[in-house]
Amino acid sequence: MQRIFLAVALVLGGIAAAATANAAGDTEAGARAFSACAACHSLEPGRHMTGPSLAHLWGRKAGTAEGFARYSPALKSADIVWNDATLDAWLADPKALVSGNTMIFPGIKDAKARVGLIGFLKAGGASGSAGQTAQGGMMGGGMGRGPQMQNLKTLAPAQQVVAIRYCGDTYLVTTAVGELPPFWEFNLRFKTDSSATGPAKGHPAIMGAGMMGDRASVIFADPAEIGTFIEKRC
User: Fold this and answer.
1) How are beta strands 170-175 and 161-167 bridged, if at all?
2) Angle between helices 111-120 and 2-33 (to 10 degrees)
3) pLDDT score at 141
4) d(CA 30, CA 36)
5) What is the pLDDT of residue 210?
6) Whose CA, among 60, 104, 169, 211, lies 20 to 30 Å from 120?
7) What integer pLDDT is reported at residue 127 of this predicted model?
8) DSSP letters along 14-61, please?
9) pLDDT in tens, 88-113
């Protein structure tokens, strides 16, 4: 009898171990699948990007993330609550589920990848903890959070813009350590960041873009600063 109990215990233990391994594998696969989402979505509560934060997603009505203002009318009017079934349909083909939505995403055709991603979102996104889950796991410390944003208030002097001149088709940018090489007007972008990590008012920051060193973005605290900060002078 003891041998039977031992055999049963071993079998059950093996099943539990396999289930744990499968769950870990699913979590890792889901974290990898999230890489398709991380450029546009974060899992930090309140941190919206191109798309809304996916924190606290489970059981939420579509188009209602607090503080996100870029929903399409189609999604805002959709009578959908996010759960396993609705997320699977959305991830498979967003346009088929909600016609007229503006999400630029063709869908994930691999059903297994969708299951892994949904499990990942359900495990952490429902509580807003998936960013920490991925951060501590195989994704190298940031996949769950999306692209990491620098604090533009604490940049080095070389990235602190003090003046911008516009001459012909050229921008000349001066930082706290001196003037940078001139930028062709098409290669210098002007952006705003009103978040807590954005630049201080009146103190824009410059960030390099691309691999050639000839492209950059200047980030302001408010769009009203852009026109007043740039001086048109040769």
Assistant:
1) antiparallel
2) 90
3) 42
4) 10
5) 76
6) 104
7) 54
8) HHHHHHHHHHHHHHHHHHHHGGGTTTT---STT--SSS---TT-TTPB
9) 999 999 999 999 999 988 999 999 99
Sorted by where each begins, the domain ranges of the chain are 21-123, 157-232
Give the pLDDT of residue 6.
36
Dihedral Cα 84, 39, 55, 99, nearest 10 deg:
-50
Tokens of 21: 């391994």
CATH architecture of 21-123: Orthogonal Bundle (1.10)
Cα(169)–Cα(184) distance, integer angstroms: 6
Which amino acid type is present at position 199?
Answer: P
pLDDT of residue 18: 33
Measure the CA angle with vertex 40, ends 38 and 45; round to 5°.
80
Burial code (b: 16+ CB inside 10 Å, e: under 16) for 178-193 equals eebebbeeebbebebb
What pLDDT is stored for residue 128 in this prediction? 57
Phi, psi at 98, each rounded to 5°: -130, 95
Q: Residues of the chain whose pLDDT is less than 70?
A: 1-27, 124-149
β-pairing verdict for 178-179 and 170-175:
antiparallel
* C-alpha to C-alpha distances, 183 to 152, 157, 174, nearest whole angstrom: 21, 19, 11
Which 8-state DSSP code applies to residue 176?
T
Q: Which of 185, 162, 166 is nearest to 231 (CA)?
A: 166
Record the pTM.
Answer: 0.64
CA nearest to 54, candidates 95, 90, 25: 90
pLDDT of residue 191: 96
DSSP 35: G
